[in-house]
Design goal:
With 327 residues, the protein is α/β, with parallel strands linked by helices.
Length: 327
């Protein structure tokens, strides 16, 4: 995984957002209604994420603290040629690892359609929070912050071990769970930057090793373009960038010495050199932009990117407990 690429992509979109503290809640859905389609479930998840956002929190994946949602069908009415479906939606918030429910509240919502399926889909799209849920989330925030105040040190130690083992994604997942309200957040943010730098250096070293092996196996002009293209993937701020530049110089020197007349190979090498130079200039310009950007903007971009990596990791790796279904 190229975490630096994710950081770059996130920078433009996230830098426009306010640097505000965000408690993370993972949406979990359960229903006594049979026959719900994958599309219905996706609609509910989308509504839950909107509800979480409207309550001033941030939606996550596979986190310890969840917004549970249980949906039950109440009644179905006929109005002319239309069907009206009413649902009871119960929201719960709690610690899905310790099986601790912080509180619950219920609302009703309705939908209309030509068929039972359409009426159900319409009702699910109308799931919304309300003042009681907002109050519930605000009360839960204090308990969540308290948890991370008490356990933040252990989470950071765990993340440090994961980083040592080059388990970047798992480390980011742990670190991004610590909210900005928590006193441990500055250290967590510093470690996110450590992951960024360590992953960058790790990937660059791996690319350099591949390029060195390619050139050692075939140190001739016909292989120069491929070697140069491989080296062009190494970022200028990587620790091994000077070694990459030294290898480029050796390749250039040998190619010129072996065959000055090979026009095609020379053009290919020049093209690769030009591509790398443009990449270097673009990257240098990007670095300069980042340097001139405010510290807050850089932090926001990296936090967003780290959370993107953590979300991808959670979707693939994190097993979600089913305690919330009994709340």
């Amino acid at each position: 995984m190229n975490i630096k690429k994710i950081f770059s992509l996130a920078f433009a979109s996230f830098s426009a957002l306010p640097l505000s503290a965000q408690i993370m809640l993972s949406p979990c859905f359960d229903s006594t209604i049979g026959g719900l389609t994958d599309n219905n479930k996706a609609i509910v998840e989308g509504r839950l994420r909107n509800v979480i956002s409207s309550c001033g929190a941030e939606s996550g994946y596979g986190g310890r603290f969840v917004l549970g949602c249980k949906v039950a069908a109440l009644q179905r009415e006929v109005s002319g040629t239309k069907l009206i479906q009413t649902l009871e939606v119960t929201f719960t918030i709690g610690d899905n690892v310790a099986n601790a429910c912080f509180g619950s509240t219920s609302v009703e919502c309705s939908g209309i359609g030509n068929t039972e399926g359409q009426a159900m889909t319409s009702a699910l799209k109308n799931i919304k929070g309300g003042p009681q849920l907002r109050d519930l989330v605000n009360e839960a925030k204090f308990r969540i912050i308290d948890y991370y105040e008490k356990n933040g040190r252990g989470i950071i130690m765990k993340a440090r071990t994961l980083i040592t083992n080059h388990n970047w994604e798992a480390a980011l997942f742990e670190l991004t769970q610590i909210p900005q309200e928590c006193s441990h957040f500055p250290e967590a943010l510093k470690m996110m930057n450590t992951v960024y730098e360590a992953n960058l250096d790790h990937d660059a070293a791996r690319i350099l090793t591949v390029a060195e092996a390619m050139w050692a196996a075939n140190p001739y002009p016909e292989n120069a373009a491929a070697v140069m293209a491989t080296l062009s993937r190494i970022e200028p701020d990587a620790a091994c960038y000077p070694k990459a530049q030294a290898l480029i110089k050796r390749v250039e020197t040998r190619v010129k010495a072996i065959n000055e007349r090979d026009y095609q190979d020379q053009k290919a090498m020049e093209k690769a050199q030009l591509s790398m130079e443009r990449r270097r200039m673009d990257t240098a310009a990007d670095i300069e932009k980042r340097r001139l950007a405010t510290v807050a903007a850089v932090e926001k971009a990296r936090i967003a990117a780290c959370r993107d990596v953590a979300v991808a990791y959670a979707r693939r790796k994190v097993q979600i407990n089913n305690y919330y279904r009994r709340w």
